[in-house]
Amino acid sequence: LSLVGSEMCIRDRDKGTLMDYDAETQKWSVTVTLGDGEMKFRWDAAWTINFGGSLGALTQDGGNIKVSAGTYTIVLDPEAKNATMTAN
User: Fold this and answer.
1) Is 88 helix (H, G, I), strand (E, B) or coil?
2) What is the rounded CA–CA span in Å between residue 85 and residue 6?
3) Contact of 16 with 42, CB cutoff 8 Å
4) What is the residue-wise DSSP string for 1-65?
5) What phi and psi, each to the nearest 5 degrees, are found at residue 9?
6) Model confidence band, residue 6 (pLDDT cutoffs 50, 70, 90)
7) Short-list 21, 22, 61, 26, CA closest to 40
8) Over the stretch 12-70, which tens digit does the pLDDT of each residue have?
9) Half-sphere exposure (Cβ direction) of 55: Cα atoms closer than 13 Å
10) Are 36 and 67 in contact (CB under 8 A)?
C-alpha cells in the first residue's frame, strides 16, 4: 500500500510512499513530510484498488485528498474506510 499524489505533495509520485502494515491493529501507517497538493491511497502500484475522498469516509476511486505542507503521521483503516492525519 502506498500514498500517491501530486508532484508537489509526494516526492516520487509514480512510486508513491510505502506504508507499514500492523498485523495486530490491521491498519497501515507512515510518518511522511508532504508538500501542498493532493494524495490518495493505492494498492499494489496499480489503480485497481485506490481510496480517496474524505479521510472520514474514503471510497473506491474517490477524489483526491487535499493536503497542506507539513510532516504527518497517517494511519489508514481499510476495513472502516477511514484515515487520520496527525501533524507532527
Assistant:
1) coil
2) 17
3) yes
4) -EEEE-TTTSSSTTT-EE-EEETTTTEEEEEEEE-SEEEEEESTTSSSSEEEEETTEEEETPPPE
5) -85, -50
6) confident
7) 61
8) 656 789 999 999 999 999 999 998 999 999 999 889 999 999 999 999 999 999 999 99
9) 12
10) yes
Q: Name the residue type at position 43.
A: W
Residue with cell 472502516: 80
The three grid cell numbers given for residue 68, joined into one nine-digit string: 497542506
Helix, strand, or coil (residue 86): strand
Determine the pLDDT at residue 14. 64
Give the integer Cα–Cα distance in Å for 46 and 35.
23
